[in-house]
Amino acid sequence: MFHRMLSKMLDYPDEGLLGVAWEIRERGRHAEGLAPSERQAVAEFMDFVESMSLTELQGHYVMTFDLTPEHSLHLTHHVFGDDKNRGPALIDLTEYYKAYGLELPVKEAANDEDNPNELPDFLPLMLEFAGQLEPEEGRVFLSQWSKVLNQLAANLEEAKSPYAALVRLIEQRSLLIQAAA
User: Fold this and answer.
1) Per-residue DSSP letters for 119-170?
2) What is the pTM of this model?
3) What's residue 176's pLDDT?
């Protein structure tokens, strides 16, 4: 539940997000296993969402993630940039998903009818995948990306982005498995 909630919060804002804003807020308040700081981060982010119109949210999202490479939600971009080695990493990630036999959700992109599928390293998609796994398996999967998540969160914090707290939550949760090892 936690991963899917964060996936929705980090995905491109649409009417669907606004339609479930109250549900996300309630889940953030009452979900089992969330620390007070996590509940606060969810509440503050939802305050941000509800303070803007959909058009303003979408503009803010594009400025934050699409026009600033250091904030990219495509995690392999932070490792490889536009290097040719990124392609094999994306293929490996796709094969990893297939090995679990899980169907990944297909994103219906209103602004890109020619390419409705998102790359496999897109953080909201990765969170959807982690949400389909057992909780510990989801944490193990995300722990592979903890350094990238840490850098992404730091970049967003430097820009004072409201998205920073969400990425930091994911990063901190991914570290729990490492601390136990």
Assistant:
1) PTTBHHHHHHHHHHS-HHHHHHHHHTTHHHHHHHHHHHHHTT-TTHHHHHHH
2) 0.87
3) 58
